Amino acid sequence: MKCLTLNTHSWLESDPLTKLANLATFIHTERVDVIALQEVNQLIATANVVNLDDFFIPIASETVPIKQDNYAIQLIAKLKELGDNYYWSWCYSHVGYDKYHEGVAILAKRPFVANAILVSPMDDPLNYRTRRQLIASFSDYHVLSGHYSWWTGNQLEGFQAEWQATLNELKNYSGKKLLAGDFNAPSNRLNESYALICQSFTDTYHEAQEQIGSATVGQTIDGWQDVTEAMRIDYVFMSSSCQVQSYRVVFDGKQQPIISDHFGVLVDIMI
After folding, report:
1. What is the 3-state secondary structure (H, E, C) of 109-141?
2. Domain limits at 256?
3. What is the CATH number of the domain that holds 130?
4. Signed CA dihedral, 184, 188, 190, 196: sign only
5. Into how many domains does the chain fold?
6. Entry pTM
7. What is the pLDDT of residues 156-206, one digit of tens each?
8. Helix (H, G, I), strand (E, B) or coil at 49
9. CB neighbours of 70 closer than 8 A, spacing ≥ 6?
10. Do 113 and 57 meet the contact criterion of CB atoms below 8 Å apart?
11. Residue of 154, 143, 66, 145 lying closest to 112 (CA atoms)
């Protein structure tokens, strides 16, 4: 099973439609089974709400409608042009850059049950620290698409609080789990977010028979303005031992063009 994760940066990118088309072509060519996306945005000001077909999987608790410029539905449309139908879902997290409904999405070749989990202590969409993650439940495993906050050193806020809330929620999901997304957790920082995750989950990077690439951020980005070195902060974690055939960093300007301020991670895993 191929799983791709990417923080898309969506409409904040220059020439975003070309980059979206590049993403769709890659998904089609690689025959990716599950795609976890973060920073999946739509303009708050957009008036057009779309009619959704049976490939869209709604979340019972979601109150924000899908609009015409939602990045995920635009990607779905591009994939359909290539002959691919993907089931998909999107959950809203907070207002981004004062003008976007920002959320996370999951696309998959197989149907699934979608649920959103609130992991932040706050539940105010006007507060960018409000975080909801999306869980897709298949018959034999679960996939979470997540976008987490930074390490703060305070167990009551930031990554620590969100991670504990995630663990509490995941107790309700039996079976194998994949956690994919932007964890804002540099792998080289000791005793912080990455180490905390690895107490409960395994980093597929270290289990892969083949590794191509490492860093998923190669420049200064929002939230990390004081950091200039390349970092690995986007991951696919697994809850149980599985055979990981390959781990590839993609859209890093080498085999594929850069399409976001993050690179993507493509994992081929036997689950």
Report:
1. CCCCEEEEEECCCCCCCCCCCCCEEEEEECCCE
2. 2-269
3. 3.60.10.10
4. positive
5. 1
6. 0.97
7. 899 999 999 999 999 999 999 999 999 999 999 999 999 999 999 999 999
8. strand
9. 40, 41, 42, 50, 90
10. yes
11. 143
